[in-house]
Design a protein that fits this description.
globular, 19% helix, alpha+beta, eight-stranded antiparallel barrel
């Protein structure tokens, strides 16, 4: 009898989820943004800063007009590149010779804060980067602290 009750509860939960799928604006992450112009407008020439929710580690990243990014994670600046693919933001960094690619869905809350949510393709780990609203420019001077700044390397 207990197994039957558990099975019925499972079926009921599945039916409710199917009957009323979650909408992007119902998400605790915010409203899903997939429009390339909106995503680019929130990133290009701006700095985002926040926390990797799974570890509590703080991060800062400046998104250059060139498609380069300068990522400060634990006081180490990584050179990266960013681009859009199928409504997601994708990133690759110099520490992997630009071969390890992570793509994230971008969400925005009414206060302007952003969340990037995705999974590491190699490890399958959930990655959730929460950010304060975009700050125009490079207030942390990451371009001056990085080896080549916003200039793309020939291999990128």
């Amino acid at each position: 009898m207990r197994q039957f009750a558990l099975t019925m509860i499972g079926l009921l939960v599945a039916a409710l989820q199917h009957a009323s799928p979650a909408r992007a604006d119902d998400s605790a992450l915010g409203t899903l943004i997939t429009d390339p112009d909106k995503i680019t407008g929130l990133m290009r020439g701006n700095t985002l800063q926040g926390v990797l929710q799974e570890t509590g580690e703080r991060w800062v990243e400046f998104y250059c007009d060139s498609g380069r990014s300068l990522y400060d994670f634990e006081q180490r600046i990584s050179l990266g590149k960013w681009w859009l693919d199928k409504g997601q933001v994708c990133f690759a960094y110099d520490w992997s010779q630009y071969e390890h690619i992570n793509c994230f869905q971008m969400y925005r809350k009414p206060d302007g804060s952003l969340t990037f949510a995705g999974k590491d393709p190699e490890e399958g780990l959930t990655l959730t980067f929460a950010s304060a609203p975009p700050t125009p420019g490079d207030p942390f001077h990451l371009e001056n602290r990085a080896a080549t700044g916003c200039r793309l390397e020939p291999s990128v």
